[in-house]
Amino acid sequence: MRTLLKIMAWTTLYIAGKPNFKDDVLDNLEKSGISFLPGSSDDKDIFLVWIDETLPLRELKKAIGSKTVFKYRLQFFTSLAKKQEELNKAPLTAREQAMILEMKTWEGNKYRHSA
Q1: Mapping DSSP to helix (H, G, I), strand (E, B) and coil, where does residue 66 land?
Q2: d(C-alpha 69, C-alpha 76), whole Å
Q3: Tens of pLDDT along 12-41?
Q4: pTM of this prediction?
């Protein structure tokens, strides 16, 4: 009987989040049983990991755990260029700017007469 050997193809994934997220992500991935290889990045705020290219991102997020994903506001990127695109997105829309101005005006009026 011939045994078929599955050759796994790896894909790179970059994870960014609030400070000190790397240890929790690494611990959760190790406990999950998912095949992964941790890496390092020049950017200290980025966690580099190689995963099976057939693994859906949703499964990876489940392995990391929703509490960790939300606690550290984790973001997942397939390249550093994609991360830069996210950071350089268009500035606030006119509606968002109007809402901020409205909040500032409201705060100014509310606290101007208090003392």
Answers
A1: helix
A2: 10
A3: 999 999 988 999 999 999 999 899 999 877
A4: 0.66
